[in-house]
Amino acid sequence: MTGTRGPSGRDRTGGLPAVWERAARHLYDLGPGPVLDVGCGTGACADALARWSGRPVVGVDPDAAALARAGRADAVLVAGLAQALPLASGAGAAAWLSRVLHHVDDLAALAAEVRRVLAPGAPVLVREAFPEFAHTRAYAKFFPEGVRAAHGRPSRTEALTAFADAGFTPRETVSVEEPFADSRTALAARVRRDGDGMLRCLSDAEFARGTERLRAAAARERRTGVFEPVTDRIDLLVLA
Questions:
Q1: Could you tell me the sign of the dihedral formed by the alpha carbons of 193, 105, 163, 159, in that order?
Q2: CA nearest 58: which of 68, 31, 73?
Q3: Which CATH superfamily is domain 16-131+152-181+231-239 in?
Q4: pLDDT in tens, 188-210
Q5: Where are the domains of the chain?
C-alpha cells in the first residue's frame, strides 16, 4: 500500500478520511487481487481506495443510475447485487462495505457471498451507522423523532453474528467521529427531507419542528460568532 491517509476535510468520500487511519492499518500486505467496494453507489469510496492504496478496486452496486453518475474512473464500477458479487471465488484481497447493511434484506447471504469472493485471511471493513447509537447521530439533537427510523436497521450485534456465521473473526470494533458539517449554520443551509435516512420517516410536522430547532441553533451561532462543527458517529468493524 502506497499511503496511509487521504486528503483532509470533507470530500466525495463521505467522511472516509476520518476512519482512514483506523482502516488503513488493516490494508497493508494484502494478497493479490482487487479490493472490493460492496454497495459503491457513485464510486466515491471506490475511487478514494484506488487512489490511496494504489491497488485495483472493483465497486459493485445494483443502482445503475448511481453508477452512471460516477465522476471518476480510478476504480472499475460494475452493476451487481451484494448477494451475487461478480467476482471469482477467492479472488478478492479485501472488502469495503460503507453504509450498506441496512440496504440488504439477508445479512447472512451477504456475509456468505463476501466470504466466497475473498481469499483466506482477507479483511472485511464495515463502516455503518448502527441503530443502537442513533441518538448520537448528527441530526438526532434537532430531529429526535428521527431516531426511530434506525430501529429496523441491522444492529452491530446482528452484523457481527452474520459475519461470524460465515466464518469471519472480528479484528477490531471502533466508533469514530466523522466531520458532517462545518457548523450548525452550514447544516441548516443544506438540510433536506430526503437527505438522510433519519429524516425520511418524519411527518411534515416533525420535520418542520426539527428544522426550526436547527435554524434556531444556527441563529445563535451567528449572533455569538461561535460556530460549532457538527460530527457524526460511525462504527468501523474489521473482520477477517
A1: positive
A2: 73
A3: Vaccinia Virus protein VP39 (3.40.50.150)
A4: 999 998 878 788 889 999 999 99
A5: 16-131+152-181+231-239
pLDDT of residue 16: 56
Amino acid at 96: W
pLDDT at 12: 40
- Per residue in 61-81, pLDDT (tens digit) is 999 888 988 876 789 999 999
- CA-to-CA separations, 73 to 4, 11, 39, 44, 96, in angstroms, rounded: 21, 17, 17, 10, 18
Closest CA to 79 of 57, 62, 100: 62
Closest CA to 53 of 83, 82, 75, 78: 75
Residue with cell 456468505: 112
Which residues lie below 8 Å from residue 40, measured CB to CB, with a gap of 6+?
46, 59, 60, 61, 67, 75, 77
- Work out the number of other CB atoms within 10 angstroms of the CB of residue 195: 11
Residue 8 confidence (pLDDT) above 80: no
